[in-house]
Amino acid sequence: MSDSTERSRTKIEEAKDKVIGAIAETMDLYGVTPAAANLYATMYFKDQMTLDEMRTELGMSKPSMSTSVRKLQEIEMVKKTFTRGSRKHTYVAEKNFFRSFMVFYCQMWEREIKMNMEAVEEAQEDFINVIKDSTSTPEIVAEAKQYYDQLEESKKYYHWLEDLVASIKSGKIFEFLPKDQQD
Amino acid sequence: MSDSTERSRTKIEEAKDKVIGAIAETMDLYGVTPAAANLYATMYFKDQMTLDEMRTELGMSKPSMSTSVRKLQEIEMVKKTFTRGSRKHTYVAEKNFFRSFMVFYCQMWEREIKMNMEAVEEAQEDFINVIKDSTSTPEIVAEAKQYYDQLEESKKYYHWLEDLVASIKSGKIFEFLPKDQQD
DNA sequence: AAGTTTGTTAAAAATTTATTTAACTTTTTA
DNA sequence: TAAAAAGTTAAATAAATTTTTAACAAACTT
């Protein structure tokens, strides 16, 4: 390989590494481990990879790659592919950021909605019982009512978030905010 | 205090704790420490709090409260208030989840857009240089072009995310997804 | 201005999380 | 079906983060 070819290869690798570094750095804000973040960013520039290729490329242990790839599959940023001829499993990175966005945030928000709404509903029932309890003093009734109302108000937000998730899942949000705008 | 009053008070506390637990649990997915998550959730049911009240209520150290409250101020989930008569600082929790949502995700997404777009722009320049380099072999030019195109495609997503942030900041998104829907 | 209270910074301890090594299970193929 | 290869689970180690204790700085009171 000639000197200039080698120099070009190096430049390409350096350019990729800039993007890999940026993606990996922002990704651990998404609740994945550094290993998983690095792995995804690396796979972003690859067609497909096996566990052994991942281990070699990142210089990490195989179980670490196995765990990372599973976590990435959970948030659908990596998918398993069938490659005939090879008995090793092969994986590909989701390269469409729109899809990653949709899956990740919908998952996150649905979890939040479910968990918080359940607690809110239960708590509201409790407050109603206190309000209906004939032995409750006026002060206590007033307090319970105030908390009940605060929770009722918060439900508006969770309903809105539900709508947001639905519009992302259905793709309706792209009618409001087109994927390709002309500025 | 009568038995039944005491029982009602306990029920109110239990009801609040359900919500506090749920909020705290979902919040540490938002990148805050357990102490900060618990603190915010606790403050959600309080008018205002001083550092000493926080320490007493959560049974944690003062520096921990100080750090947590600062972190919560950064993401604008807590604000400092002036209470004349008291020389202690007092803080209030943002109780409008819409506002917390806007500040948190806009901050998060703007950081992601900035960091990744900068890397993408730099990398694209590098790829262009390789492509323009007269000593580059056809294979190398093809490879550089492919990566360049992949990054160009990714910019559509970042532009879309910019639009999403803008529509959240301006409130325009609520024309598309109203805060109070009637189902 | 001295003393006291409040809040912050810095170093240390404790806890949690991430990664690795080693053992084990499953799958493949010969 | 036995041997080998691939992948996963579990325990142990390592690393990073969170929290606390202790020392310090700033602000208020008298």
UniProtKB/TrEMBL annotation, chains A, B:
Superkingdom of source: Bacteria
Keywords, ordered alphabetically: DNA-binding, Transcription, Transcription regulation
One Gene Ontology molecular-function label: DNA binding
UniProt cross-references to PANTHER family, sorted A to Z: HTH-TYPE TRANSCRIPTIONAL REGULATOR MJ1563-RELATED (PTHR38465:SF1)
Protein family membership: Belongs to the GbsR family.
NCBIfam families: choline_R_CudC
Protein name: HTH-type transcriptional regulator
